[in-house]
Structures are given as C-alpha cells and as structure tokens.
Write a structure and sequence with these properties.
Elements lengths: L46 H10 L6 E8 L10 E5 L4 H12 L8 E4 L11 H9 L6 E6 L6
Main location: membrane
Subunit structure: Forms a conjugate with ATG5.
Pfam families: APG12
C-alpha cells in the first residue's frame, strides 16, 4: 500500500504515538495580591448598601391577605379570606384555620401554599407573601386538606 497522508490530529497506526502533554499542577490556594494585614477596612457603608439594609427588615404592608382554599373533602370556610399581620408565623395561620374548622386536637389539617409548598411552622407570613407565593391579586393562597395532598 502506498503511504497516504495522515489526517491532522490522528496518529498513524504504524508509527509510535506521541507522548501526551502534561498539565502542570497548581497550588490549591489562589494567589492573593494583598496580605490580610494590608486589606482595607471600610469606615462607612456605601449609600446603596445603607439604603438596602434600611428596608431589609420591613414588609411592603403590615397586613397580608390570606385566601383559604379547601382541597378534597375539606369543608369550606364561610369566610375564605382573612388578614394577618405580616410578622406572624405560619403556625398562627394554622391555629386560625383549626379554630375556624372547629377541629379537635386529634384531627389534622395539611396546609399548602400554591398547591404544592408546605411551609414550616416558624416561617414568617410576610416572607411567604413577599417572595414568589402571592397570586396576581396580591393574596397569599393557602390550600388546606384533611389528608395529605400534593405529593
């Protein structure tokens, strides 16, 4: 057979393959241009940081409108909409719902936000409302069931 020109990047089978290049090892710690003792200490916060921190603890409104939606065999409430302070925990919502449904201590109620998310009892209602869980009308929709639902 006549020797044909080798394709670029593909070694010929009858010749010894070249030794692959070695990638040098690098130090695990990054190169820091300044020592820690030479770093600058801020004496005041920038204006945008100060304004962001001033509004960080507050809520858009003092009260959150909560709409209760029954799921499955759960009884419907006569008043399906209620207002709650934005600083209250989700356990207060469950306490209110249990009271309105007249549940005994041995009976359960399962609550979900947006038909999928079950918040923890210590979650702040204002945080749930201000995050992505309010509907287009600004209400926090809480679905409730007597048996586990949605997974």
């Amino acid at each position: 057979m006549a020797d044909s020109p080798a394709s670029p990047g593909i070694p010929r089978s009858d010749s010894a393959s070249p030794t692959p290049a070695t990638i040098p090892d690098r130090s695990a710690s990054p190169e820091i241009p300044l020592t820690m003792s030479a770093s600058a200490i801020l004496t005041a916060q920038p204006r945008d940081v100060a304004s962001a921190l001033a509004s960080a603890g507050g809520y858009a409104s003092e009260k959150v409108v909560v709409k209760f939606k029954p799921v499955g065999n759960a009884p419907a409430l006569a008043m399906a909409v209620a207002k709650i302070s934005s600083t209250q925990t989700f356990s207060t919502v469950i306490w209110y719902l249990r009271k309105r449904l007249k549940l005994r201590d041995a009976e359960n109620v399962f609550c979900y936000v947006n038909d999928s998310f079950a918040p923890s009892l210590d979650e702040i209602v204002g945080n749930l409302h201000n995050q992505c869980f309010k509907d287009s009308t600004g209400q926090l929709v809480i679905s409730y069931a007597m048996n586990p639902a949605f997974g």
